[in-house]
Predict the 3D structure of the following.
Amino acid sequence: MKKGRLIYADEDGTCYVTRRIECDMRPVRSGCGMHIVNSFRYGGFRSLYEFDCFVVRFIQKQEKEKAEDLSGLTAIWPECEDLTELFARLNTEEYCYFINEGGQKQWPGGTLHPDSMLVICGQEPAEVVYRRTDVSEPPVGETEFVNILETLRIEEKLPVLAKDHIIYLLELLMRDQGGEISYFVHDLDFGRNYEPGLLLDELGKIDLSCSQSLYQELVQTGF
């Protein structure tokens, strides 16, 4: 049992449910699920837009699939205040990460409050995850961030595994739930493949032409 899905409950209680994601979704250090847990714990998934961005990038990275939008990736389930009904709809062989940004939800362990995540194994709740409240400023300064990415760019002898680990740690520290750092490094080749208008958000285009612009984007959306 390794595959799984994410569910986001918005302020109206509507549940946005991803399709089954084909990767190791276990909430352990070697599994992809721990990235989901840490992204939530360090401030991610504060809006449906952030959830959408995370899902697209997560599937792109884990399944090596080009996912441009959420078409076919998510479904909408009606509001349910009692999570027992939701558990019954889940596959017994999947992990599920339920992000509650709506009202209180009842489950066998009591009440699931807003701004919390419930990790579900099969159809059984396993753990409640809460956000950290002691992280309010970017733990990495802009100069340090730029220097780290510049080192990754020019250091050809750095092992791929070590480079990926550094990127992963940066994503956690910068609350990069959408995987923009990984996208900047691998897809945009440190900004060299960026074209104006290539990326758009609700407020207009996203500038990922250089590491400084990437840092400002992460600070604006994560902090």
